[in-house]
Design goal:
The structure holds 2 protein chains of 2 kinds.
Chain A: H1 7-45, H2 51-65, H3 69-84, H4 90-115, H5 119-127, H6 132-162, H7 174-185, H8 188-219
Helix pairs in contact in A: 1-4, 1-7, 1-8, 2-4, 3-4, 4-6, 5-6, 6-8, 7-8
Chain B: E1 2-11, E2 14-24, E3 29-33, H1 40-47, E4 55-60, E5 63-64, H2 72-78, E6 79-82, H3 94-104, H4 110-123, H5 139-151, E7 157-161, H6 169-184, E8 188-192, H7 196-202, E9 205-210, E10 213-218, H8 220-225, H9 230-242
Parallel strand pairs in B: 3-8, 3-9, 6-7, 7-8
Antiparallel strand pairs in B: 1-2, 1-4, 4-5, 9-10
Helix pairs in contact in B: 3-4, 3-5, 4-5, 5-6
The chains are: A mainly alpha, B alpha/beta.
The complex binds adenosine-5'-triphosphate and magnesium ion.
Chain lengths: ~220, ~240
């Protein structure tokens, strides 16, 4: 029996994916929001004067980057509740995992961007009497932020795709929704093609958005 | 205004400053000359503690910078610094470059700071560039903005580290003019420079540093016409032959 592409199944999949898509977006946005805060913190900690603080951030970054996200997800969702005795919802767990995971990569992005700023900028800031914190806040950070845009865009795309791994802890996101649909209609080709299309549209939009943001920052504020 | 006693500075095993005493009076203009790598920048950067002295003492307007009780940020606001590479903040407009210090360090309102900023930009001849960004300016203009930026803190002294060395020759004059104007107004200045003409004309005192110590110092006329130290003679010979 030859394979026939069922166009109607393909198109009908999209509306059914909407609920999963909403969850994927929620988790990605929430996870990356907190991931950026966590990553900025860890990235700046890696540049701290105190060795202890630097090491602390280092351990976090290495531990996360050195282990698969799938393991992190299983550990946080199934493992940690056994130890501390509180259950969290799959969605909350999903946001935490994306935040903790992306935070480690974002830390390196932040550290690199801050270090790439000419030391003369810090000296100029300090020489007019700004404190270390003020110099970071008003002089270094805004410039570093601009340099972070391309690698951050990259990380946003990676993390968005990584949300699909959260299906293993029962988050009804896009990927899991697709899987549920195929378990009913057995049309894996059409359904996963549709799922892939939805991811692609989102990742391309992020890439495009970042490009536009970069352009805008380059033409107006220098 | 500045009182340096027996300053030493090492970078690891490298002894860069080996016992320098320097007293700069209020309103005085002191030029520091010397060969590359002799430690001129290091002395200057010790004064506002961008480099931490290895030993010795430095007082700026009576504040001992080595004292833990001294708020170094206050001292730095009193002792402005102008860098060879300008180090303007590229993400801020010219006016914002000048007003950042008054607003954040002196807690001035934005309105007052803007007023002060425009006044200072006018003083350095760049009022019409207030809304521009640093990369739209020539080197000479950038350095004049940098001077306005340090003036905005109403400092008691300004430290210049080769302010014209990164400039195309035709842009040197406009920066030196501004500096000369400041000197005439009575600003205390310490200027590391290779501009012997400026040192001769504007300095009250010239200091020759080599190998981390002051080899000779004096009023400019005597200093240049009648140098005693053989190293200084040699140095001046080289500089003059370059001109
Ligand atoms: N942060 C540093 N770490 C290590 N060595 C340094 C540092 N800063 C300066 N030095 C060294 O100290 C010596 C004096 O440097 P300094 O910049 O004070 O010289 P300079 O007289 O200003 O020279 P130039 O005319 O080239 O600016 C040089 O040998 C330099 O390599
Ligand atoms: Mg120097």
């Amino acid at each position: 029996m030859a394979f026939v592409f069922e166009t109607s199944v393909f198109w009908d999949t999209f509306p059914m994916l909407m609920r999963g898509l909403k969850l994927t977006v929620q988790i990605a946005v929430g996870g990356l929001f907190f991931g950026f805060i966590l990553g900025s913190l860890a990235g700046l900690m890696k540049l701290a004067r105190s060795l202890v603080v630097r090491k602390l951030a280092g351990v976090y970054v290495e531990a996360i980057r050195g282990t698969p996200m799938l393991v992190q997800a299983m550990f946080l969702y199934y493992g940690v509740p056994m130890a501390v005795g509180v259950r969290i919802s799959p969605i909350t767990a999903g946001i935490i995992i994306i935040a903790v995971n992306s935070g480690a990569y974002i830390a390196e992005i932040v550290r690199g961007a801050v270090q790439s700023i000419n030391p003369g900028q810090v000296e100029a800031g300090r020489s007019i009497g700004l404190t270390r914190t003020q110099t970071m806040l008003y002089v270094v950070w805004p410039q570093a932020l601009k340099r972070m845009i391309p690698p951050l865009g990259n990380q946003f795309i990676i993390s968005l795709k990584d949300t699909s791994l959260l299906m293993v802890i029962g988050v009804g996101e896009l990927m899991r929704t697709g899987q549920e649909i195929t378990s009913v209609n057995f049309r894996a080709f059409e359904v996963y093609l549709a799922v892939a299309c939805v991811y692609l549209v989102m990742t391309l939009s992020i890439a495009q958005g970042m490009k536009m943001l970069e352009k805008k920052l380059n033409t107006s504020r220098r | 205004m500045i009182n340096i006693k027996n300053l030493h500075k090492n970078f690891g095993d490298l002894k860069v400053i080996k016992g320098i005493d320097l007293h700069v009076k209020s309103g005085e203009v002191v030029c520091i000359i010397g060969p590359s790598g002799s430690g001129k920048s290091t002395v200057l950067r010790c004064i506002n503690k961008l480099e931490v002295p290895s030993s010795g003492s430095i007082a700026v307007d009576g504040h001992d910078i080595m004292d833990k009780q001294t708020n170094i940020n206050e001292v730095r606001a009193e002792a402005g610094m102008v860098f060879q590479q300008f180090n303007l903040f590229p993400h801020m407009s010219i006016l914002e470059n000048v007003t950042l210090g008054p607003i954040k360090v002196r807690n001035m309102s934005k309105t007052d700071a803007d007023e002060l900023g425009v006044k200072l930009l006018e003083k350095v001849g760049l009022k019409d560039k207030a809304e521009n960004y640093p990369d739209q300016l020539s080197g000479g203009q950038k350095q004049r903005v940098a001077i306005a930026r340090s003036l905005a803190l109403q400092p008691k002294v300004i430290l210049f580290d080769e302010p014209t060395s990164a400039l195309d020759p035709e842009l040197v004059g406009e920066v030196l003019d501004v500096m000369q104007k400041l000197a005439k107004e009575g600003m205390t200045m310490v200027v590391v420079t290779h501009e012997m003409g400026f040192a001769k004309e504007v300095a009250d005192r010239v200091i020759f540093i080599d190998e981390g110590v002051i080899q000779e110092e004096g009023a400019p006329d005597n200093f240049f016409s009648n140098p005693k130290n053989p190293r200084l003679k040699d140095f001046l010979g080289k500089v003059v032959s370059h001109l």
